[in-house]
Amino acid sequence: MATTFPRLLLEHAAQRPHSPALREKEYGIWQTLTWGDLAVLVRELAAGLAQAGLRRGDHLVVVGENRPRLSAVMLAAQSLGAIPVPLYQDAVAAEFVFPINNAEIAFAVVEDQEQVDKMLELREHCPQLATIWFDNPRGLRSYQEPGLASLDDLCANGRLYAAARPGFFEAEVQAGVAADVAALFFTSGTTGNPKGVVHTHHSLIDRAQAGARFDKLTSAEEVLAYLPPAWIGQNVFSYAQWLVCGYVVNAPESTSTVTIDLKEIGPTYYFAPPRVFEGLLTSVMIRMEDAGAFKRWLFARCMTLARRVGPPLMDGKPVGALDRCWYALGNLAIYGPLRNTLGLSRVRVAYTAGEAIGPDLFSFYRSIGINLKQLYGSTETAVFVCLQPDHEARSDTVGVPIAGVEIKLSASGEILVKSPGLLKGYYKNDAATAEVLTPDGWYHTGDAGFIDASGHLKIIDRAKDVGRLHGGPFDAAMFAPKYVENKLKFFAFIKEAVAFGDQREKVCAFINIDFDAVGNWAERRNLPYAGYADLAQKPEVYELIRDCVEKVNADLAQDALLAGSQISRFLVLHKELDADDGELTRTRKVKRGAIASKYALLIEALYAGRTSQFIETAVKFEDGRSGSVSADLKIGDAQTYPAARKAA
C-alpha cells in the first residue's frame, strides 16, 4: 500500500496513465488532465521548487480557488518533503500575516492577480516571503516585482533542473515516509490567532481510505471541487480521497458558474456544508414562487407525499404499493426534474458536515430521492470520525464511528475521540496541543453529545455554547443555540440567525434575511425597497419573519427538553454577517463571542423590552475600504407556546 500522496500519484500514473485525473472548465470548455500528464507536471514543478531552494521540512503557502495546477503544486511540494499550507482565498491580506510568519514561509504559489497583490502587500510584515509564483497571468504582464514569476517559468526551470539530474524526482518521492508531515491547516481563529493543525500522510490517507471503504467509493466517481481548498473538508474529499480512490475531480470555471457546472458534471459523490444545501433549497423556493398556480399546487401535493414516503423508501423500509405508485408518478413530474435542476441527479452519496443541519432541510433532500447523509469530524480528526450508513441516515444523529475510531464521553458530556486520523499537534503551540490531546491519545472535541441506543452519535451543540436559562417560566431549562438557529435557517427567507439566552430569562435572536428570497417575495407583492437595510426593516418583512419564528416556537414547544429555547423577541439586522467584518469564520460559522461583543447594544435593547434601537456599525467593503452603516432597528415580539407534556 502506498504511504504518501506522491507515491499514490505515481501508482495511478503507472496503472492508468490515460485516464482523467482532473478537469478544469476554461472559457466554457472542460479541459482534462490525465494521470500521466499530471505526473509529468508534478515532476516539473517539484524540480522547479527544488531549484528555487525549497527543501524538506520547509513550508509553502498555496492560495486560490480549486485549480489543477495548484493541486499539482501541493503534490510537488510533498514530493520534496516540503509542507503545503493552503489558506483561504477570500481572506484579506492581514489575515495571512500570522500563518505566514508562524510557519516561517518564504515561498508562495497563488492563483491570480488578486492573490499576488495580497502577497506583495504582506512583504512589509513578512520580509522572509521572497518568492511568489502565480497560475493565471491575466493583469500581471507589467508587474516587475522581485521574486515574482509564473508557474510556467517554474515548470521551465524544473525541466532544465530535472534534465541535469536524472532520477532526482523519484529519489525524493521514495525518501518520503507515512510519518512525514503532509500539510498544515490553519483553524479559523474564533478566539485569537489561528492554530496550525499538523497532519501527516498517514493520518490523512488512513481516514481517506476508511471513508472510501465505508461508502464503497471507486475510481468511477465524479466530484466537483468548489469549496475553499484551505478547508480540510474540501481537502479530504477532493485531494486525499481523490488520490486514494483515483476518481475524477472537476474544478468549476468560477464561483459564479458553480450551479451550471454542477449540472454539467452531475457528480456521483457530493459534499457540501449545510449553508450550500440551504442555498439550493432557497433557489428552488424562489422559482416556485414565480411558477403558475397549477405548478405550485402540484409541487405542494407532491412534496407532501414525498415527506411521508420518500425517507422510508431511501431507508429501505416497507412502503405500500399505492404510495409507491404515487411516488413514482411524483418522481416523473417533480422529484426527478428537481434533482436535475439542482445538479444532483447522478449523486450516489451526498454528505453534509461542518455544522449541524436542520432536520427539515435534511428531510427535504432525502424526500426527493437524494442519499444525503451526515458525517462528524473536524480539522483535528482529518474529518472522518462518524458516518451514517446507507438506510440509517437520520437528522438527529451524525452516524456511527467508522473503522479505527473510538469514542467516549467525559463526565461533563464532552465527546472524546481516539483515531488514526488525529492531528500530530498544533504547530509551535505545545500548550494548545496539551489542552486537546491527552497523554494516552484522546482528543477533546469540545462538542457535547451522547451515543444513542442504536449506536449513533448525537451532537447537542458546542459544549461551551450549551447553556441554561435563568429565571422566567423556563428557569434552568437547557438552551442549545445552534439547534434553534438551524430550525430558523430552514426557512428560505432566513439566511443566518444568532440566538442568545444563556443565564437569561428568555431567548432572543438576531436574524439575517436572505436578500434574494425576501427580495423576490417583496417584488411579487409590489413592495419597493432601496437595498438590504431598507428591505430588512419593512414592517411587512418583520411580519414575514415573525411567522417563521413562531412556527419554530410551535415546533420547539413539542420537545419538553428544548421548549424553553422558544424565541421571545427578535430583530432583523441591518447588514449581513460577514467574515471580513469578523462576524463569521471563513467557513461561515458564527463567531458568537465576537457578535455578542460587537452588538452588545442590540442585545441589551432586546432584553430591556425596547421597541427599536439605533446602531452604527463599522464594515469593510470588498475593495478593502472601511466605512460604516447605521439604522434604527425595529424589535419584534413573537408568540411562545406552553411546553408539551412528557408522555407517561
Topology overview:
Layout: H1 5-15, E1 20-26, E2 29-34, H2 35-52, E3 59-63, H3 68-79, E4 83-87, H4 94-102, E5 107-110, H5 113-122, E6 131-134, E7 148-150, H6 151-163, H7 168-175, E8 181-186, E9 196-200, H8 201-214, E10 222-224, H9 232-245, E11 248-251, H10 258-265, E12 269-272, H11 274-290, H12 293-314, H13 321-342, E13 349-352, H14 359-367, E14 372-376, E15 386-387, E16 400-401, E17 406-409, E18 414-418, E19 425-426, H15 430-436, E20 443-451, E21 457-462, E22 467-468, E23 478-479, H16 481-489, E24 494-500, E25 507-513, H17 515-524, H18 532-536, H19 539-557, E26 567-572, H20 592-598, H21 600-608, E27 612-620, E28 626-634, E29 636-637
Parallel strand pairs: 1-11, 3-4, 3-5, 5-6, 6-7, 10-11, 12-13, 13-14, 25-26
Antiparallel strand pairs: 1-2, 8-9, 9-19, 14-15, 15-16, 17-18, 18-20, 20-21, 22-23, 24-25, 26-29, 27-28
- The count of helical stretches stands at 21
Sheet with the most strands, sense and barrel status: 5 strands, parallel
Percent of residues in helices comes to 25-40%
CATH class call of the largest domain: Alpha Beta
Which range does the strand content fall in?
15-25%
Question: In words, what does this structure look like?
Answer:
This protein is an alpha/beta fold. It folds into three domains: 5-263, ANL, N-terminal domain (Rossmann fold), CATH 3.40.50.12780; 274-417 and 442-462, no CATH class; 467-637, ANL, C-terminal domain (GMP Synthetase, Chain A, domain 3), CATH 3.30.300. It contains 21 helices and 29 strands. A five-stranded parallel beta sheet has the order 4-3-5-6-7, sandwiched between helices. Helix 1 packs antiparallel against helix 2, helix 1 packs across helix 3 (68-79) and helix 12 crosses helix 14. The longest helix is centred in the middle third of the chain and has 22 residues, at 293-314. The mean pLDDT is 92.
